Amino acid sequence: MPFPAQLNIQSSRLAMRTVEEGDLPDLLAVNGDDAVTQYLPYASWQSLDDGRAWLVRMQKLAASGSSLQLVLVEKATGRRIGTCLLFRLDEGSARAELGYVLGRAHWGKGLMFEALSAVLAQAFSDGFVGSGALRRLEAEVNPANTASCRLLERLGFQPEGLLRQRWHVKGLVYDTRFYGLLRDEARGAAAP
Ligand SMILES: CC(C)(COP(=O)(O)OP(=O)(O)OC[C@H]1O[C@@H](n2cnc3c(N)ncnc32)[C@H](O)[C@@H]1OP(=O)(O)O)[C@@H](O)C(=O)NCCC(=O)NCCS
After folding, report:
1. Which residue minimizes the CA distance to atom 33 of ligand 1?
2. Are 88 and 129 in contact (CB under 8 A)?
3. Distance CA 160, CA 164 (A)
4. CA 97 → CA 27, 84, 113, 170, distances in Å?
5. What is the position in ligand 1's atom list of the atom closest to the CA of 141?
6. Which residue of 7, 9, 121, 130 has the fewest C-beta atoms within 10 A of its own C-beta?
7. In the chain, which ranges are continuous DSSP H helix?
8. What is the pLDDT of residues 19-75, one digit of tens each?
9. DSSP, res 4
10. How many angstroms is it from 148 CA to the middle of ligand 1?
């Protein structure tokens, strides 16, 4: 039961769809910003070549059915302002991980909460993965990334522990807070 190859999700201000090559110039502005990538395990993109290499990796993972990379399109302007990733699908256990990135100019307007509320509703719905649904979603966050921690908690994710010295990235060793959200909890949460 792999992830669907194509997806289109709508919320009031955003459209979320499978990423494609034409999205890369806008995504370079997002991922080329050190403030955006500060807590992410990759260096800021320097050029479109970095974006193209990323897209090849994402498309390879998507072809295996284990990951789904969505781009967030601002409906009012048509601009691609961020991304959302479902990855590391474990089919037997019906669980996957969640990642997300938003351009700095768009922070603090409730946009990622809106986007993820719509994505979670799909991910936990019947038939999303084959004939089933995800039962659990996970996310790993640097505790210093307060915006991301707050976002997950507002979405209903529960902190499930601190993984000590989990990452060594960009010359720093750091802990991560592990979050989990169960389908039953998400479905019981208030609508976006
Ligand atoms: C994390 C991120 C996606 C949040 O997106 P956003 O659209 O600004 O978040 P929202 O506006 O939906 O806010 C969600 C919650 O986080 C809070 N929040 C947003 N920015 C915050 C900040 N800088 N500090 C503290 N809390 C913050 C909001 O107040 C809101 O909580 P509330 O409803 O209780 O007020 C965005 O900051 C980002 O892309 N950061 C860089 C990439 C990144 O770190 N990704 C996550 C890796 S784990």
Report:
1. 154
2. no
3. 13
4. 21, 11, 16, 22
5. 48
6. 130
7. 24-31, 34-37, 48-63, 111-123, 146-154, 183-188
8. 999 999 999 999 999 999 999 999 999 999 999 999 999 999 999 999 999 999 999
9. P
10. 5
Measured CA to CA in angstroms, residue 186 lies from 4, 12, 179 at distances of 20, 20, 13
pTM above 0.90, yes or no: yes
Pair 160, 140: CB distance under 8 Å: no
Residue of 150, 154, 169 with the most ligand 1 atoms within 8 Å of its CB, for mutation? 150
Q: Which atom of ligand 1 is nearest to the CA of 103?
A: 39
Query: Token match 């100019």: residue?
Result: 105
**Rounded to the nearest 5°, which phi and psi values hold at 140?**
-120, 125
CA of residue 105 to ligand 1 center, whole Å:
12
